[in-house]
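Hi there,

I know you've been waiting on this one. I reran it after we fixed the sequence typo, so this is the corrected version. Both the input and the resulting structure follow.
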Amino acid sequence: MGRTMTAVKPPGLKQLRNEKALKVYAVVLCILIVVVAAARWLRVLCNRRLRSWPTRGGALYRAFLLAFRQLEKRPRWKWLCELPVGLLLLLGVLLVINATLSVTIIAGLRINYFASRFGWLAVANMVLCVLLGLRNTPLSSVALVSHATINTAHRIIGYSAAFLVAIHGILYTVYFVRQGTWERLFEHGNIQGFSAGAGMLVLLFGYMRHQNYELFYASHISGFVVTVFFTGIHRPDWAKKLPIVMVIVACMWAVERFLRAVKMAYHLVGTGLCQEAAVLYPLTDGGTRLLLRSRRAHSVPPGSHCYLWIPCVGLGQSHPFTVVSSGSWGMELVIKAHDGFTRRLSELATEKPGSISWASIDGPYGSLPDLQSHEKLVLIAGGSGAAYTFGLMNHLLASHAKTRPQSVDFVWAVKHSGQLSWFQQHLSQLKRVSEGMSVNATVYITSEEVAQERHVDLVGNLAEPGADELSGLLFGGECQQLAAEQTPGLYSCTYKYGAMSADDVLWDAMQTVASLERSLVVTCGPLTLMRAVRDAVESYREKHRQRIVNFYCEEFS
């Protein structure tokens, strides 16, 4: 008996135009990525070459840097979320492209054609959103873009995709009602489309990430899985490419998750076999010092961040923390207790000081600012944000770079003097500065009052649990050998009581900077502090337009 072969139905004009529109979108995205990467690398090149080309070439580099400075400004309008002009322009271009492709390359002026186009653009933005949301996204290293910037773009693109999905559903609803076939809304494929939309609504709960990170994390994962699955079977015809796109999205996400899980499991087993693990010590005011004895810690630069996994604290959870110091002995993390994982970690350290737990890390992640290309560094931190600035200093002191900053102003603001024990050893470690470099440390204690400020020659307060072990690690072995090879520079530390003024701190730091020298201001800590420092930098730039003052803000948003 012969078998009848059914010919594959060729795609219609609407499908072909939708595919063409998405190809145009993909090309434009590639061009934008190249432009952003070229601009970022050009900025790095100009900053590095500025002092080596003091004549005509230097003037050209300075002109480029001043132009890039305009892109770093932030409009004062709160409804723009205080995003820099450069990022606003980039997102504006993406929104214009989406709006243009929504009404062009259309097969016909019919409402269902427009509804279909909005759906396809939503799918394209979902792909881009997932690419930006990957921890190992290539955009971070290619374009030298910070974690905070990529995360901001990830959220805005996600909101755009949700908006396009809503328009897609509304237009198709209007179309079916006008045709008198509203019952088609309850067909099998359309119900799956509503399910995908419900999953996307769950994804919009991203604002909870600051209130309850664990709830946000669980809802985000579940919402993503629901959205991708039901979108893929919303139109299951493989010839229409939608299932193919969703399979690609799912594979990108799943492969990255699988590789990170395998790495974490491997390092967990490795630390267990070598009897190297996380040692926990409680600190005052809800802090926890974690010493992770790991053979691979020397490859993790201080100042970067890693995702920490401790099965006995959170079996299915990993959270990002900044590495304060690292070496062949392992790495150190200082963690402030909030809710959930960090609270349980603090309680375990308090109940069993010095307890040893199996742990694993995934990382490092994040790109460090270019410290060596500046003559002046101003590091400003608040509270536990000092983990980042102390990490940068440890990275700078341990590096063997030929060129280093000539002067460093290290500013740390805490509420209570008890918090000083969190980083007392590292504050003492700042005395181990290189020849030709001076460090001026200032500590603000904002919630206590003393009649006058005092200058302190720190010798280290090692009474805090875990400080003896940490001191031996920091000041012994390879660090002592490195210190012996260097001629100490200048170091001073001042304690001040009362509120810190970011404008005054920056103005005082810039008094010793020559007109052709490059300065870098780095801040990390509470949002109010980072905004105050950013505003102070922008105010200083307005008053000294020819000065090269770069700004870097580290935040986990």
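Quick highlight: Residues 376-468+481-553 form a domain with the Rossmann fold fold (CATH 3.40.50.80).

Best,
R. S.
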